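User: Teach me something about this protein's shape.
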Amino acid sequence: MTGRILIATAVLAIAGVADAHPHMWPLYRAQNYNWNANYAHVQYGQPVALVVPPTANMQTQWGWGVSSSRVSRLDHQFGRNYPGAGPHGGPFYNTPYWPQDTTQFGVYHVRGPW
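Assistant: First, the predicted structure itself:
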């Protein structure tokens, strides 16, 4: 009887961890990946955040070629507190003369804080 309770407890614990883990993926990606694709906006010389509503969770990126569009998650959130001037993660690439994707324009979606 004790063995069955132990097994049932272990199964529930594993199921609880597996269920909670997908909810942590956006937080993990936001902390470990850049919000930009290392391309600078032409007028600003660094990436620009296009603030979208906080309820937005997906974005569409367009490319020219075989796989022309893709839908991806929108993980990063714009912070209210300005940390001050600092390193921006550069150097950034300039927009190519013949861009092949919308990520090369230097404007990236970031969810708003409100």
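Now, about its shape. Helices lie at 2-32. The longest helix spans residues 2-32. If you'd like, I can walk through any region in more detail.
User: That's plenty for now, thanks!
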